Amino acid sequence: MFPACRYSLQARRCVGALKAVQAEHVAPQVCSTRSSSSTLSRITTHYSVYPRDKDPRWEGVEMERFADEADVVIVGGGPAGLSAAIRLKQLANQHEKELRVCVVEKASQIGAHTLSGACLEPTALSELIPDWKERGAPLNTPVTEDKFSILTEKYRIPVPILPGLPMNNHGNYLVRLGHFVRWLGEQAEELGVELYPGYAASEVLFHEDGSVKGIATNDVGIAKDGSPKDVFERGMELHAKVTLFGEGCHGHLAKQLYKQFNLRGNCEPQTYAIGLKELWVIDEKKWCPGRTEHSVGWPLNRNTYGGSFLYHLNEGEPLVALGFVVGLDYTNPYLSPFREFQRWKHHPSIMSTLEGGNRIAYGARALNEGGFQSIPKLTFPGGMLIGCSPGFMNVPKIKGTHTAMKSGMLAAESAFSKITDENLQSETAGLYIPEYEEAFKKSWIWKELYSVRNIRPSFHNYFGLYGGMVYTGIFYWILRGKEPWTLKHNGLDADQLKPAKDCTPIEYPKPDGKISFDLLSSVALSGTNHDVPVAQNLAIYDVFLLHLEIETQSFSCVYEYVPLETGDGMRLQINAQNCVHCKTCDIKDPSQNINWVVPEGSGGPAYNGM
Questions:
Q1: Mean pLDDT score of the chain, rounded to an integer?
Q2: pLDDT tens digits along 529-582
Q3: What is the pTM of this model?
Q4: How many CA atoms are closer than 13 Å to the CA of 583, on its beta-carbon side?
Q5: Fewest 10 Å CB contacts: which of 127, 149, 480, 576?
Q6: Would you state the torsion angle of the CA atoms of residues 310, 174, 328, 463, taken in this order, to the nearest 10 degrees?
Q7: What residue stretches are annotated with the 4Fe-4S ferredoxin-type domain (predicted)?
Q8: What is the pLDDT at residue 25?
Q9: Is 142:313 a contact under the CB 8 Å cutoff?
């Protein structure tokens, strides 16, 4: 994705122009081979890079925001955020208390940005809503069969799934997680939760004492060049006694909070993966509702962490969900997770299922893989972190929905006790609730993540995949994670790439348009849409560095070199409107030069049950 020590002829031309620009102490701008009289255009205009108070175009613009008050504001309408909202209102109704709970969600509809496999473990759901079956929860496919295998280029080697191993899915359900999240939203609204889809939380607000005051939604009516349009409107402020941040993996606001409150001071850096997924309608004769298939091995080498899933869903038509996960600690800069996914589908054991079928959806997102070692401090004055924002995914299980939901419930219970305590004397304006972290460490989430803590880092050995599998068999299946040591991760994923000169280029086959596909046609199936004139959800700190690092293909055709209108050179173009919000460029960029930020509300993918 990001070559460390190479760049194309086009990039070299851009770099030459940029060096000249830097030598003249001009602010970093996109390169051009036009005459010096031409104005060099900025490729990023976000106010975090170009502050508005230093931009004369913003002089005289009304910047006051309307503010509203709630008891609890929740950022993110996913499993964690909605579970927290539901639990808060359940407790309020049970104790006959008035409690205003607001959920802001950047997607246009609840569930529209949700993407997961997904094989759901219903533990937390049964605790939250015991009568979920009677209420019509869309868990339509109980797992009936588990298959696990190691793939070589042409063959499939079956591996038995023994009772107690993480990949044993007895009692779980195959779901379309977006539909499940939408159902959770309906349950929340019935209880009186206020849901605000289409409103992206873009800024954390603070009291004078430094505690969190709430959030502000994003401004609208900003041109692509960063100037205010005639229809410009400030976002809205939502203040709360406590704010819960459940933005999902690598959240924009959580990144700020980690620094503001040093929440990662006593844990390892988070490590991530990229998950790519498709939905297919297949030949009914090949359809086995309830079957789960997982694999490791080909097309990845033994030292690149990753694997695949193929789930047969019972949704009224012969539907399968299939996907490929690649750890973002990969070292070869020539590796493309998207192309590895497309290549994997041509394995005989996978292609036989897909032949004659029709691909109907595509999407991608980052996943937290740091597990127990990477859990940050969860509480701070005025707020708490829940769900995939801090990262509670059980990596060997490839499941995080149940832990995300439970974390939201624990946060809700802790917050409710503090908010309704009539004798409470808070030292800060925003409530500090350390009881949440205490409850978390006593919960089954903590025990579950602790027991599997060494499985992911055990792959960092000479034998890679196979060494990790042996370790899992001995120390997890036999000892259940009770070994008296805790293995470490390798550090930031952004630091793992080797120089391209030390790596072997990967020649990927061209997509055939039947089983494998190109990026543009895939992004089209995600329903991704941003207002093109204002799409600016990628803030680049240093354009010069970006030219040195970027490859012309990314996961969603966001970064590319295009010819200059004059035909005498190339320029770097960021197609932010193609961003599916996977956030992988932000995570993997070797110089940490890219900052993913929320676009205008409702922008991004429009997943239907992904």
A1: 88
A2: 877 544 566 777 665 555 545 443 344 578 877 888 888 888 777 887 788 999
A3: 0.91
A4: 22
A5: 480
A6: -60
A7: 570-599
A8: 33
A9: no
E strand or H helix at 215, and its extent?
strand 212-217
In which residue are the tokens 């399968």 written?
320
Higher pLDDT, residue 99 or 560: 99
Q: Is 178 exposed, middle or buried (0-12, 13-18, 19+ CB in 10 A)?
A: buried
Measured distance CA(176)–CA(78) in Å, rounded: 13
Q: How far apart, in whole angstroms, are the C-alpha atoms of residue 125 and residue 402?
A: 7
Length of the chain: 610
Those residues whose C-beta lies under 8 Å from the C-beta of residue 326, and which sit 6 or more positions away, are 273, 274, 300, 304, 305, 306, 335, 337, 340
Beta-carbon contacts of 461 under 8 Å, excluding residues fewer than 6 positions away, are 467, 468
Alpha-carbon gap, residue 16 to 570, rounded angstroms = 12
Phi-psi region of 92 (alpha: psi -120 to 50; beta: other; left: phi over 0): alpha
The one-letter amino acid code at 474 reads: I
The encoded tokens of residue 272 equal 């991530």
* For helices 444-451 and 401-419, angle between their N-to-C axes, nearest 10 degrees: 140
Give the residues across from 117 on adjacent strands. none
User: Residue 486: which residues within 8 A CB-CB, separation 6 or more?
Assistant: 372, 373, 453, 454
Contact 185, 111 (CB under 8 A): yes
Residue 413 CB: number of other CB atoms within 10 A?
17
Scanning the structure block, which residue is given the tokens 């349950």? 187
536-563 burial, b at 16+ Cβ within 10 Å, e below that, comes to bbbbbeebbbbbbbbbebbbbbbbbbee
Paired tokens of 432: 């500090």
Q: Please give the full DSSP string across 309-353, using - where no structure is assigned.
A: EEEEEESSSEEEEEEEEEETT---TT--HHHHHHHHTTSHHHHHH
User: In the structure encoding, which two tokens stand for residue 505, read together?
Assistant: 């280029």
Calpha distance 414→88 (Å, rounded): 10
